[in-house]
């Protein structure tokens, strides 16, 4: 049973596409399921090399583990499509919405870690304030308003009213 028989229309989804040569398509994949041809490719080229290539095609380690399931059935294919969609959406968010295009790849990871730290600190402040905005100094509220205005000018998808204090 080839991939075409797994889920009909999903097999032709853009989420199931990746650049490859006609030779690879005909002689390596050859209408076989990924759990059949991927182990051969990994054995011939090393797992690290193949993981790197697949990740550059937005196929995450989670997606690869799904593709290697044996047996590989319709539910596995749907799980792969869902994971690939999540990976591509995350990439779009990181590159476009968060405006990280100007950062080197290794700095993007650091930027993401810093962002997680900042979100954690904000959560601590939120819990500490317990919804009482009157405890926030006025100069801090002014800076927040300025940042919200700048952010909404950069990203039209943000709704400034969502960030307004009462």
Brief rundown of the structure:
With 166 residues, this protein is an all-alpha fold.
Q: What secondary-structure arrangement, pairings included, does this model have?
A:
Layout: H1 4-7, H2 22-29, H3 34-45, H4 47-56, H5 61-67, H6 74-97, H7 105-129, H8 138-154
Helix pairs in contact: 3-4, 5-6
Please provide a written account of the structure:
By secondary structure, this protein is mostly helical. The chain is 64% helix and 0% strand. It contains 8 helices and no strands. It has helices spanning 4-7, 22-29, 34-45, 47-56, 61-67, 74-97, 105-129, 138-154. α3 (34-45) crosses α4 and α5 runs antiparallel to α6 (74-97). It is elongated, with a radius of gyration of 22 Å. It starts with a helix and ends in a 12-residue tail after the last helix.
Classification by helices and strands = mainly alpha
Number of strands: 0
The portion of residues assigned to helices is: 55-70%
Radius of gyration: 22 Å
Shape: elongated
Distance between the termini: 60 Å
Q: What is the ordering of alpha helices and beta strands?
A: HHHHHHHH
Low-pLDDT parts are none
Mean pLDDT: 83
* Percent of residues in beta strands: under 5%
Main beta sheet: none
What is the number of helical segments per DSSP (H or I, 4+ residues)? Answer: 8
